[in-house]
Amino acid sequence: MANAKPQTPLGLFDTDGLIAEEDLAIRDTVRRFVGDKIKPHLADWYESASIPARDLAKELGSLGVLGMHLDGYGCAGTTSTAYGLACMELEAGDSGLRSLVSVQGSLAMFAIWKHGSEEQKQEWLPRMAAGEAIGCFGLTEPDFGSDPAGMRTRARKDGSDWVLNGTKMWITNGSVADVAVVWAQTDDRIRGFVVPTDSHGFSAPEITRKMSLRASVTSELVLDNVRLPESAMLPGAAGLSGPLSCLNEARFGIVFGALGAARDCLETAIAYTQERLIFNKSLAAYQVTQIKLADMTLELGKGMLLALQLARLKDEGVLRPEQVSLGKLNNVREAIAIARECRTLLGAAGITLEYPIMRHANNLESVLTYEGTSEVHQLVIGQALTGQSAFR
Ligand SMILES: Cc1cc2nc3c(=O)[nH]c(=O)nc-3n(C[C@H](O)[C@H](O)[C@H](O)COP(=O)(O)OP(=O)(O)OC[C@H]3O[C@@H](n4cnc5c(N)ncnc54)[C@H](O)[C@@H]3O)c2cc1C
Q: Which of the two ends of the chain, N or C, has the fewest CB atoms closer than 10 A to its terminal CB?
């Protein structure tokens, strides 16, 4: 059979036909930004484990992706589909870049947008949308990750003030943040607090020696008698449903984002195998290679169809948390499997930073763990199917 013109993995599924023109235009803008401004620097940022977070935040703010799916307060008010597609393009660059945007928009900004007072919204959201202020979201503690209800960070009332004490761990953007949304146990229930990071008693030492998400800032948050006015509490969030509502937003972004990393791996592997001659023949021309590429393409396309269905439900306002779990569990799990399989196709070259594959694979280890581990999402789905909680 004559050689046909190669198609792209997602081109085979014609998924663009399921997406509105305006959303495709946003996707293409973000793709160009990542290709021109981000990809040339990623290997260096990853190797040196340092990113120009402040400059990046401003550029991302100008691009309009910070809190893009929120309405008002300088946010773009796009569809959830457009937000998902933007996450996909950002993570096709690096999961660290998408993490910066997810934490800013879906965790810190969303918490204030959804649960904050009008005063808190006016103070923080326009600057955060513009990338002039960076936010972080402190839920996890050293001993409480999957089980945040056990958190030890406490907020006690002292007159009309709140006084916060405790330690948060693994907090994205922590050391570069201007504002931290911190969740703490009160005498009543778990509450959220908007903490300016220049508050007396607040510090955010960076966590170093990471092997994953190196192009992302990860920190501890230490709250040592941090005194805040009464108005620092998020009035609309009482109990664990407050932080969980934010996590659901960020998880939705990951459903698409992980596919971006997988797509970048697959496209890199296809290009590499076309060029690489083995036993005098293109590696892409071997059946073993084509079976691998076909199987990975199927998983990528199935993940994309799942993501688009979840986005459709979210745009209709009917997306349920257990449905987000379906997407996060499947798409991150398949993305990491694709990254590992693509690495085999590159042989030794696959372990270097000359190609993005090992970087993506390492990043996806974090993505597999944060925003609910795979096991936690399996338990969410299991509970939805059986009506029985197996968490404890
Ligand atoms: C790079 C990075 C960035 C992060 N950024 C943030 C951030 O910005 N803000 C934030 O608050 N947190 C952040 N996190 C923390 C992240 O959300 C937690 O790591 C995650 O929730 C898991 O918690 P843990 O690491 O304590 O693991 P653990 O909860 O200790 O889990 C260990 C293992 O036990 C399993 N397990 C847990 N519960 C059960 C159960 N009921 N049954 C069976 N198995 C179970 C888990 O699936 C896992 O395999 C980040 C983490 C990383 C790695």
A: N
Position 3 scores a pLDDT of 72
Q: What is the pLDDT of residues 44-56, one digit of tens each?
A: 999 999 999 999 9
Query: For this structure, is 371 an active site residue?
Result: yes
**Amino acid letter for position 125:** L
Shortest-distance Cα residue to atom 47 of ligand 1: 375
Write down the residue that tokens 């990043």 correspond to: 363
How many whole angstroms separate alpha carbon 245 and alpha carbon 71? Answer: 17
Token digits for 33?
A: 């930004």
Q: Is residue 171 within 6 Å of ligand 1 at its C-beta?
A: yes
pLDDT of residue 286: 98
CA dihedral (186, 191, 197, 203) in degrees, to 10, reads 50
Task: Pick the atom of ligand 1 nearest to 212's CA.
Answer: 1
**Relative to the CA of 210, which ligand 1 atom is closest?**
1
Closest to 94 measured CA to CA, from 265, 234, 322, 224:
265
